[in-house]
Amino acid sequence: MKRYSAFAIAREAFRFHSGWERAWKSPTPKAEYDVVIVGAGGHGLATAYYLAKNHGITNVAVLEKGWLGGGNTGRNTTIIRSNYLQDESAAIFELSRTLYEGLSQDLNYNIMFSPRGVLMLAQTEHELRAWKRTAHANRLAGIESEMVTPERIKKIVPMIELNGPRYPVLGGLWQARGGTARHDAVAWGYARGASDRGVDIIQQCEVTGIDRDGGKVTGVQTSKGAIKCKQLCVVVAGSSGVLADMAGFRLPVESMALQALVSEPVKPMLDCVVMANTVHGYISQSDKGELVIGGGADGFNNYTQRGSFQHIEETVRALIETFPAISRLKQLRQWGGIVDMTGDRSPIIGKTPVEGMFINCGWGTGGFKAIPGSGWATAEMLADGNPRDLAAPFSMDRFTEGRMIDESVAAAVAH
Ligand SMILES: Cc1cc2nc3c(=O)[nH]c(=O)nc-3n(C[C@H](O)[C@H](O)[C@H](O)COP(=O)(O)OP(=O)(O)OC[C@H]3O[C@@H](n4cnc5c(N)ncnc54)[C@H](O)[C@@H]3O)c2cc1C
């Protein structure tokens, strides 16, 4: 595949852009692969990319029922940070954040990573204590994050109202190297990199059944016919329970709609990400000028990619308390995604009761930031047939063994 470069742009400008290649191929599925990955979201594509790049395993298919990146990966609000509480999470999220820093260069694809800083407000004494604890835990884990005072917050975000009608801003947890990236570009960049290394990405190919011989996986039934495989890795976020059901086991996850919205575009007014967990909302500004606003998940299980109306109202009302300047902006678009939530708000990466079948799910409301690290760890697991250190703590057994990785504070409002 030809590399993207300033020289390539100049060259193509002189020949009416006729020389660009397709970013990824659209092959007909083969009858058999060493590894079949279900789900061409960020996690599935990153897994395929690192399988090929780090382990030389390229007889791999990624099967996608819609279009690649059309699930939560293309629907999220792109917050990237690694200031989680528990050591296991800190390890995988920090690897991810570090990989994001060099990802455009690694993929030769501009993912528009913008380390603009992420600020998590403390608006109750309880929250202040929780963030202080997280800041200390982060320091021990070697992650850069710090507590900041209300005065410093006002300097970082001049438009903030520190003394809102319900909750004053008492402090905040600030991760200066956190930020955002362009979500579609992350999916497209990994797809291009994986396809270039020989991975088959097959879109419009829904997995409808999982074939087993005794307790071992042998392949999948799809809308494009049967495909055999030695290993199967299911990476389908909100549809994880449906795929587990096809294989005959249950997962400790719940699927719910989580939604976000953007305002009309305005001139630059906010150059970092601000999360307000107590009032329940978070906000950043996209390069186009839209304010990107997200809130909580629906309080009931469902599979609609919309979300309920009252959440939009609650979220906007909450943010207007902290940012009165946005009160007269119009909403431009709203959308939802189906997130897969576990009881301890940590993901599941590991083996399943079916031999040869692996799962990566449970990223809930916060898995965009984890895509590079999760893909890296899942590729290691598939290459070895067993999870290595990074993924091992996230096995499904933790729910039967009572070995929770409790991130309900760090992941609360949730991104
Ligand atoms: C509104 C919203 C805001 C969010 N904000 C953030 C944020 O700011 N920061 C953050 O870190 N995270 C955020 N998240 C969470 C993040 O988007 C997800 O954790 C992450 O994108 C999950 O990626 P994935 O690759 O696992 O899943 P997905 O991107 O959902 O990919 C799974 C794919 O599997 C496919 N699939 C499903 N069933 C089948 C089948 N039977 N056969 C074939 N293919 C199938 C789907 O079509 C889909 O494309 C947010 C999510 C939402 C919805």
Could you characterize what this model shows?
This protein has 415 residues and is of the alpha/beta class. The protein is built from eleven helices and 16 strands. The strands form two sheets. Strands 1, 2, 6, 7, 8, 9, 15 and 16 form an eight-stranded mixed β-sheet that branches. It has an eight-stranded mixed β-sheet with strand order 4-5-3-11-12-13-10-14. The radius of gyration is 21 Å and the shape is globular. Residues 38-44, 63-66, 70-73, 75-79, 206-207, 235-237, 239, 258-260, 294, 337, 339, 363, 365-369, 415 line the site of flavin-adenine dinucleotide.
How much helical structure, as a percent, in the residues? 25-40%
Unreliable segments of 5+ consecutive residues: none
| Main β-sheet description | 8 strands, mixed
What's the helix count? 11
* Share of residues in strands: 15-25%
CATH class of the largest domain: Alpha Beta
Based on the coordinates given, report the CATH architecture of the largest domain. Answer: 3-Layer(bba) Sandwich
Bound ions, cofactors and other small molecules, one mention each: flavin-adenine dinucleotide
Oligomeric state: single chain
| CATH homologous superfamily classification of the largest domain | FAD/NAD(P)-binding domain
- The overall pLDDT average reads 95
CATH topology of the largest domain: FAD/NAD(P)-binding domain
- Alpha-carbon distance between the termini? 35 Å
- Return the structural class: alpha/beta
Radius of gyration: 21 Å
What characteristic shape results from the CA principal axes?
globular
Q: How many domains would you count in the coordinates?
A: 2
